[in-house]
Specification:
- By secondary structure, this protein is mainly α.
- The protein is built from eight helices and no strands.
- The protein has one domain.
- The longest helix is centred in the N-terminal third of the chain and has 33 residues.
- The two termini are 22 Å apart.
Length: 184
């Protein structure tokens, strides 16, 4: 059980970092709930998908999943940063906060942060870990770390005031680069 908890924390660290980036734009309670749920579902669901897909596909994808996730995060973060930095004809951009985080972008971010967990699914099967327990532990840890990241990001975003969305996008790009280089 301790090993499973350590795996869950290791998997959830990328969600923590991604949530910091999202939280910098300023988020309300509904967005916090959506981020926690989406990140938790992807984080817990990808190992299950990996287990179902089996060794062949997971083995053939290998480290490619890390690159796919990294590229998706760089794209989402870059888009967010460019959109925040671009001057608007109708005045300054409203903060993304409570309503600006579209479900599609959130889902792509959740997918990007958890796609490398496909390989974890095979390992869970090889070590005969109870799948229901693994999903619950990984999901709960992911939600908790995501909420901590959102809070940290919100506090940092409040300090940098009008540049929270830009900084958040840059953090997501940084997380993508960290995933690509193997730091996360």
């Amino acid at each position: 059980m301790v090993a499973l908890l350590l795996v869950a924390v290791a998997l959830g660290v990328s969600n923590l970092a991604g949530a910091v980036g999202i939280g910098m734009a300023g988020v309300g309670g509904r967005v916090r709930l959506r981020v926690g749920i989406v990140f938790g579902l992807f984080e817990a669901g990808m190992p299950v998908l990996g287990l179902l897909l089996g060794r062949g596909l997971t083995h053939s994808l290998g480290h490619t999943t890390r690159w796919i996730g990294a590229v998706l995060l760089v794209i989402v973060g870059g888009y967010t940063a460019i959109r925040a930095a671009r001057p608007r004809a109708d005045g300054p951009a409203a903060p993304a906060g409570a309503s600006g985080l579209k479900t599609g972008r959130l889902a792509v971010t959740g997918l990007a942060l958890s796609i490398d967990n496909l390989a974890v699914g095979f390992a869970l099967g090889a070590y005969r870990v109870n799948l229901i327990v693994a999903v619950c532990v990984i999901g709960a840890v992911s939600v908790a770390l995501s909420l901590v990241g959102l809070e940290l990001g919100d506090r940092l975003g409040a300090r940098i005031v009008n540049r929270g969305e830009l900084a958040g996008g840059l953090v997501l790009v940084g997380v993508g680069v960290a995933l690509a280089t193997g730091v996360l």
